[in-house]
Amino acid sequence: MKRKQKITKGVIAVAGSGTRFLPATKSLPKEMLPIVDKPIVHYVVEEMVQAGITDIVFVTRADKKSLEDYFDQNAVLENELRQAGKTKYLEKIEQIAQMANFIYIRQKGPYGNGTPVLNAASIVGNEPFVFAFGDDLVKSKIPFTKQLIQNYERNQAVVMGCQEVLPEEVSLYGILKLKEPSPIMEIERIVEKPRREDAPSLLSNFGRFILVPEICDILSELPLGKGGELWLTDAIEEYIRRGNRVVAQPVEEGRWYTTGDPLHFLHVTLEYALDTEEYGQPLREIMKQMVR
């Protein structure tokens, strides 16, 4: 794979149902649930923008209109805030639509996390791009998308974000087996939800990738996998079998958080709230009172 294109496009998968959050997600997309004062997906977009991404493709579905509206201008609200002199809030609202060039496409095809990638293929074209799940967050000193892009620029290989998990958690995730020795953390294969004793490592892949057009080509011809779904990891493994390199990028100076269920969502909310100047100390006092 010989290419030196600058990565400027990001694809975010936001077509999930959020069933574990029902009834809250009956009318509100899971990705729009707030972490302190911003929806989950806002943090994903911020991370991409801070890494130089200028075009962001949301792969969505019919009941995600509130997400599309969120990243659009709201002239009525802006005018109300302007007339009320609430300039702090006005600036926050105005900045949202200016963060990037937003593109929305409806997900079509089989169920599975490979489908959003395939749907976005015609938009990303012949360029490498960032792919993210809309409910995975990474809180790090250097934006994790930037870490992924820097890895890609060094190694010119597909990059998978990863983080070590506890031994008792390996059966919940796709676990990476690395080639030995490999100073660049080249991946040999991905073991989906292994038993603890069969796990090749503690490195779990999560929803951040640098992908290339060849992955889209493989997805277009790949048979459906486990559960009748189109799996991105199946395409990445086929890409490896064809002699291409895929490398792992651990989170540096930070941590990956999943918001996929209410308990993890509450954990993430606390982590982010405790780190804010406005709410951090008061929240610590509340937590101390609760413990007492």
TrEMBL record:
EC number(s) recorded for this UniProt protein: 2.7.7.9
Keyword terms, alphabetized: Nucleotidyltransferase, Transferase
Recorded superkingdom: Bacteria
Short name of one Pfam family: NTP_transferase
Enzyme kind, highest EC tier: transferase
InterPro entries named in the record: GalU_uridylyltTrfase_bac/arc, NTP_transferase_dom, Nucleotide-diphossugar_trans
Gene Ontology MF terms in the entry: UTP:glucose-1-phosphate uridylyltransferase activity
Domain Nucleotidyl transferase, first and last residues per copy: 9-272
PANTHER family per record: UTP--GLUCOSE-1-PHOSPHATE URIDYLYLTRANSFERASE
Family listed: Belongs to the UDPGP type 2 family.
Protein name: UTP--glucose-1-phosphate uridylyltransferase
Origin species: Candidatus Moduliflexus flocculans
